[in-house]
Amino acid sequence: MTPPIDIQTPDAAGPDLFTDPQAAVARLVALYDQAAGYLCDAFTAAIEGRPPKHRVRAFYPEIRITTRSYAQIDSRLSFGHVSSPGTHAATITRPDLFRHYLEQQIGLLVQNHGQPVQIGPSDTPMPVHFAVAGRAGITVPHEGAADFTLRDIFDVPDLTTTHDDIVNGTHQPGPDGAGPLAPFTAQRVDYSLARLAHYTATDPAHFQNYVLFTNYQFYVEEFEAFARTVLADPASGYTAFVGTGNATITDAQAPLDLPAKMPQMPTYHLKRKNGEGITLVNIGVGPSNAKTATDHIAVLRPHAWIMVGHCAGLRNSQSLGDFVLAHAYLREDKVLDDDLPVWVPVPALAEIQIALERAVAEETALDGYDLKRIMRTGTVASVDNRNWELRDQQGPVQRLSQSRAIALDMESATIAANGFRFRVPYGTLLCVSDKPLHGELKLPGMASDFYKTQVARHLMIGIRAMESLRDMPLERIHSRKLRSFDETAFL
Fold first, then answer.
1. Under a CB-based contact definition with an 8 Å cutoff, are residues 268 and 212 in contact?
2. How many C-beta atoms lie closer than 10 Å to residue 486's C-beta?
3. What are phi and psi of 125, to 5 degrees?
4. Which of 40, 150, 318, 470 is the most exposed place for a label (fewest CB within 10 A)?
5. What distance in Å separates the CA atoms of residue 219 and residue 280, rounded to the nearest whole number?
6. What's the distance, CA 370 to chain centroid?
7. pLDDT score recorded for residue 31
C-alpha cells in the first residue's frame, strides 16, 4: 500500500476564551470527544478493510493562559497560579475523567490572575492507541497483524511527549516559548491510564483521591470488611466498593464477584462523591512495584498516599506489632536515583504526620507519653534486596546505625520519594513484623498469629488518617514543601 500523502483532520472549533470553569471544561470535553471519535471511526473503517487513502490525524485539546503581571498571590497557596508572567499551556486528555479537578484548577487560575483561559486544539497529535482505549470491541493490533501499515495512517505514542521532564524540573519550553501549566502532558497521562488498567485490573475512573498502599493481601480482606460495614450505614457517605475486574457492590450483603486470575497489583476502591473515598493498592513486595504504581497513580492527582505495610524492626526496644511513623528515609532502593538523586531530602509532611499520629492514638486509646510504648518515630530504610540479612552484615548494619534507622522495608522510601517528586502528599506508618537483627525472624507460625491480631487495627489507623485528611482544606494538605522555584499552576 502506498503511504498516504495528505493529512485529514476533524473540523474542530478554534480557540476561545473562558472565565467560567464549567464552560471551559465543557469545551475541553467536546474537543476531546470529537478528536477521539474521529480517530475511532477511521480506525474501525481501516480494520473492516476500508483503510483511508490519506493520513488521519486529530489533536488533543489544550488549556492556555497568558499573564503580563507579577500579581500578588496569597503566599499561603502552593498552587492555582503561575509563577511568572508569560504564556503557560497544558495538553489535556480524558476531560470527562478529570472534570472535577479541571474545574477546580481552572477556577483558581481565573480567580487568582483575573484573566480568562483559552481553550482550543493543541498541536500535539492524539495517538490512535489512546483514542480507542476503553472503547468496547476496538483494539489496536500489533505491527504487521493488520492489512495496512498502522503508522502510515495513524499517529502512535511518541516518547518525546511522554516523559517526566516537567515534574523532574528538566522541562524546556516549546517553540512558542510557553511554559507548562500542568505537571503532565496529555500523552503521559494517557500512557499511565492504560498502565493502571493493566496492572490493577480496574478502570482508572474508580480511583479515589486518598490512596493506601500495602504489601500484604491480608489488608485487602480487612478493607473489604470495613467497606461492607460503611456501606450498611447510609450516613457514612460511602456509595460503592469496587474490586479487581471492576466488580462493584453497593449493598453491604452483596457478593463481590472477583476474577479467578488476579492482576499484578490488586486494587480496591471505596467510593464517595467527587472521588473523596479511599483506594487500597496491594503493590506486593519490592521498590520496583512501588515505583510502577506511584508513577501511574500520580497522573490522577490524588490528595494523599500513605504506605501501611510491614517492616523489620531494627531496635531491641521494639516489639512485634509496634508501629513506626517515618519522619525520614534512607533510600537504598535505587529505582529512583536517576529521577530524584539520593542527595535530595525527602521531608516529613506535618499534616500527614499529625493525621497518622492522631489516628494511632484514637485506635489504640493511648496518648502522649503512653503512645511511645507502641509507636516509634524515626528513619525508615528501604532496600532493594529482600534477603539483605544473608549477606555480609557489617556494611549494611553500619549504615543503618549511622542513619539512626529504626525500621527497614522495600517500598516506603520509594513511595515517599515519588510523592515528593510528583507533588503528592505522602506518609508512612509501618508495623513491625520481625526483628532479624535480634533473632526474631518472620516464621510461618509467628506470622499467622501476628497477622490475625495486627492487620485490622493497622488498616483502621490508615483509614482514620485518610478520613481526617479528607476533612482538611486542600491548601493545607498540599504543602509548599513540595513545590519548586518555578512550579506549575495545576496541582
1. no
2. 12
3. -65, 145
4. 40
5. 9
6. 35
7. 97
**pLDDT by residue (tens digit) across 228-252?**
999 999 999 999 999 999 999 999 9
In the predicted model, is pLDDT for residue 476 greater than 90? no
Average pLDDT over residues 3-11: 80
Residues 95 and 25 sit within 8 Å (Cβ to Cβ): yes
Give me the count of residues in the chain. Answer: 491
In DSSP terms, 426 is beta-bridged to: 305
State if pTM tops 0.85. Answer: yes
pLDDT tens, position by position, 445-474: 555 666 667 888 999 999 999 999 999 988
Tell me the three cell numbers of residue 254.
452483596
Distance of CA 274 to the CA centre of its chain: 16
The set of residues, in sequence order, having a beta carbon less than 8 Å from that of 369 and lying 6+ positions away, is none
Together in a domain, 330 and 402: yes
Asked if residue 227 and residue 259 are part of one domain, the reply reads yes
Residue where one domain finishes, among candidates 185, 217, 234: 185
Q: What per-residue string of b and e applies to 413-427 under the rule 16 or more CB within 10 Å gives b? A: bbbbbbbbbbbbbbb
CA–CA distance, 431 with 107 (Å, rounded to integer):
41
Q: Which domain holds residue 45?
A: 7-185
Sign of CA dihedral 321, 327, 332, 336: positive
d(CA 149, CA 158): 17
218 in the same domain as 152: no
Pairing between β-strand 59-67 and β-strand 86-91 as defined by DSSP bridges: antiparallel
Query: Considering only CA atoms, which of 431, 432, 440 is closest in space to residue 389?
Result: 440
Q: Would 418 be classed as within a structural domain?
A: yes
